[in-house]
Amino acid sequence: MRRLNIMPAYRAFVETGDEKMSRDDAISRAEAHFDSGGLRETLARRIAIPTESQNPERGEALQSYLADEILPELESMGFTGRIVTRAPARGPFLIAERHEADDLPTILGYGHGDVTRGQEGRWKDGLSPWELTEKDGLWYGRGIADNKGQHTVNIAAMRAVLETRGHLGFNAKYIIETGEETGSPGLRELIADEAAALSADLLIASDGPRLNIARPTMFMGARGGVSFDLTIETREGGHHSGNWGGLLSNPAIQLAHAIASLVGPQGRILVPGLVPDEIPASMRRALADCPVEPQEGDPEIDPDWGEPGLSAAEKVFGWCNLEVLAFEAGDPAAPVNAIPGRAFARMQLRFVVGIDPLEVVPAVERHLDAAGFGYVKVTPARDEMFRATRLDPDDDWVRFAAASLERTMGRAPAILPNLGGSLPNDAFADILGLRTIWVPHSYPSCSQHAPNEHLPPALLREGLAMMAGLYWDIGAGDTPEL
Fold this sequence. Notes:
With 482 residues, this protein is of the alpha/beta class. It has 14 helices and 17 strands. It has a 6-stranded mixed sheet with strand order 1-2-6-3-7-16, with helices on one face. Strand 4 (133-135) and strand 5 form a beta hairpin. Helix 4 packs across helix 14. Residues 1-17 have low confidence and may be disordered.
């Protein structure tokens, strides 16, 4: 363990009493970037690049986003960078570094420039996914929330600190990928290969939503995600339900019962090994301050759904959930009077630290065999597997970052040990061994991955202020031990 000390000359500057004024100046500079229209102009340009990583025809757009947008901006801030590719990734990565001094902490930033498919023609009122449009007080465009808006805010906030102070007061590195929406293929291989170039003391990044629109939020990891398929292949084709009903097994009925053996009628997971033994005490304390309350436009919570005895926050952040994402038998678009010969379901487990994703499929197979459903085929889906990660909410760096956000915003942030969704945080926590802190600049109703992706612009302005304050405080030098 070591404590990172600031340079003596800078300490003398701090002791003059001008530190708060300069911190405020950096925050004001970041907010002025928003108020002048500078952030909107940058975002409009970036949203116009159709970086759909799920579309194999968008390779040029993915390259352009890094080469023409992100790299020039970072180079103008004193970074040196390069664009690299690694199999099995289909899109490029950007790695950049600004080094100020060997005895300063190094902060790694992350973002992803790719987006989900634009879904043109499905946006309301003629809105386009590739045009930043303001309507009814909201900014619309594909990537505004996930993730172009968020990493654009962080880079702009870092620039505000650099221009105010003349230096950051820490070393900075960045990695931007272009495949997160396809499961980040190649990211872990790249990080393992480039471990020396990406070595750092702490990851600070932004993705995902706040707990709610009104409350600044931090999370220190993510639940893992693993998908698998259940299939029953009984016979070729369908057979008339009048002639063969009662004589032939129906795979759809069989599969429905098999799924019911995995998860109960109120959503409780019934498979040993797919849930943790308990929720750690430090996590329960943190989640007690993070009530999950639907906001306007959100669906109503079903209070009796999920693991009994847990709060809503504990269910979504501290426990596991098993979902049916798709179920198919026969021809749903044009049903006929026939017993189907095949049934299929795509399942997904969101899981917390303590669950081994490689043991999920074997555990499901053992459970189905014991319940008399050995004829159900269980196969891993081709989706990339995300591992679960979290940083203890009592960690000193968590307290440091929370105090910085509260100082800027005048209200305490929600502290979530991990996000309810999945991110490639394991690449940084497990491969690089980093503490990880995420400060999201989005909210649950942003419609990411759907038509009409949007953000209230006030969230972006608040994000600029919070990140400028956080970067300033890290550079001031009174940081926790690493």
